[in-house]
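Before we proceed, please read the two lines closing this message. Let me know whether the structure tokens fit the sequence:

…
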Amino acid sequence: MKAGLYFGTFNPIHIGHMIIANHMTEFTDLDEVWFVVTPHNPFKKKNTLLEDNHRYQMVLRATDDYPKLKPSNIEFALKQPNYTVDTLAHLYDKYSENNFSLIMGEDNLQSFHKWKNYEVILQNHEIYVYPRIYQQKEITKFHNHPKIHFIDAPIVEISSTFIRKAIPLKKNIRTLLPHEVWKYLDEMNFYK
């Protein structure tokens, strides 16, 4: 089975994440997409994150009706901060029957050369890149790499940061979230 790994803090998961993940399962050769909930992204401050389990619960609720989309808390048991190369090695040990690929935004590809052991990742895994609108759109050395696939996916410019900032302002952002995620956020009074 070919599984795409969509890493993120998902703080919170929103319809943009869902649109991209679903597109990958329907319009590429990926059989599934796993939402890998990251406890601590090395490039983000931890104090802005909801507790790990709450973010995982939101991903669980968001993916419940989508058999090809899977929540994963695999990184919760790993040393923090987590690095993708270490998670991939752990996944290979645990699920050796699967073929894992990465899913990332085009903006993240620009800094991919800064990732820990990025050469090892590229040697062993394919990368599926979805389009993003961002400031410096420059050609990188990865654009013609045989293991990097640029996918003509919808450009979705919704951010978790925008959602977190809108909630305390009492803005109606329900349409930006899967229904069950909105209910969970509202019941738990998150981001208010």
